């Protein structure tokens, strides 16, 4: 995707997101509670209720939907990104103080990323942003050879693009 492609898509909406995944009969809440540690989502809901009660309507709406945009991947204007990060991390840092990860397996220790996927949808809904959903290309096993072979070149390109020295 080129900058021109991104700019054109952002003319159609406020934010670029991966296409939503359909959860079947599950809601966002029921899927989370089945796949992860249910009390973690309850902790987040309590924090939102106490710190950001104006977001509860959006929280409940998103929790009752049957699809979600995963991956914590998006393209958004810097000002909105900064606003989102302040809101998100205020919730996640408080959540971190209330969760004991010592009994979690490696997968469940990714709890803050899992919660952030749901919280991003809440924030977007509350802000009434218009998302544009885009296809995500996934690398599969047969692609690993290419990535491994060209990793240093890819890393140089990514670091150059984002202005980071490797």
Keywords for this entry:
166 residues, mainly alpha, 3-stranded mixed β-sheet, two-stranded antiparallel sheet, 5 strands
Give an overview of the whole structure.
This protein is mainly alpha-helical and 166 residues long. The chain folds into two domains: 3-135, no CATH class; 139-166, no CATH class. It contains seven helices and five strands; from the N terminus they run αββαααββααβα. The protein has helices at 3-12, 28-35, 38-51, 56-63, 78-98, 111-127, 144-161; strands spanning 15-18, 21-22, 67-68, 75-76, 131-134. The protein has a three-stranded mixed beta sheet. A two-stranded antiparallel sheet has the order 2-3. α3 crosses α5. The radius of gyration is 18 Å and the shape is globular.
List the helices and strands and how they pair.
Layout lengths: L2 H10 L2 E4 L2 E2 L5 H8 L2 H14 L4 H8 L3 E2 L6 E2 L1 H21 L12 H17 L3 E4 L9 H18 L5
Parallel strand pairs: 1-5
Antiparallel strand pairs: 1-4, 2-3
Helix pairs in contact: 3-5, 4-6, 5-6
Largest sheet: 3 strands, mixed
Shape: globular
Global mean pLDDT: 86
Structural class: mainly alpha
Rg over C-alpha atoms, rounded to the nearest angstrom: 18 Å
Count of the separate structural domains: 2
Strand percentage lies at 5-15%
Percent range of helical residues: 55-70%
Q: What is the count of helical runs? A: 7
């Amino acid at each position: 995707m080129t900058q021109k492609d991104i700019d054109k898509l952002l003319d159609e909406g406020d934010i670029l997101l991966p296409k939503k995944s359909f959860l079947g009969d599950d809601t966002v809440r029921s899927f989370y509670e089945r796949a992860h540690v249910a009390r973690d989502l309850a902790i987040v809901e309590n924090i939102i209720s106490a710190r950001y009660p104006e977001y509860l309507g959006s929280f409940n709406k998103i929790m009752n939907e049957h699809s979600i945009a995963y991956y914590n991947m998006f393209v958004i204007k810097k000002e909105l990104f900064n606003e989102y990060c302040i809101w998100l991390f205020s919730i996640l840092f408080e959540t971190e103080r209330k969760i004991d990860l010592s009994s979690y397996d490696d997968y469940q220790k990714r709890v803050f990323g899992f919660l952030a996927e749901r919280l991003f949808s809440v924030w977007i809904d509350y802000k009434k942003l218009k998302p544009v959903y885009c296809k995500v290309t996934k690398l599969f096993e047969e692609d690993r050879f290419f990535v491994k072979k060209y990793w240093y070149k890819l890393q140089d390109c990514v670091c150059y693009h984002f202005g980071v020295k490797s």
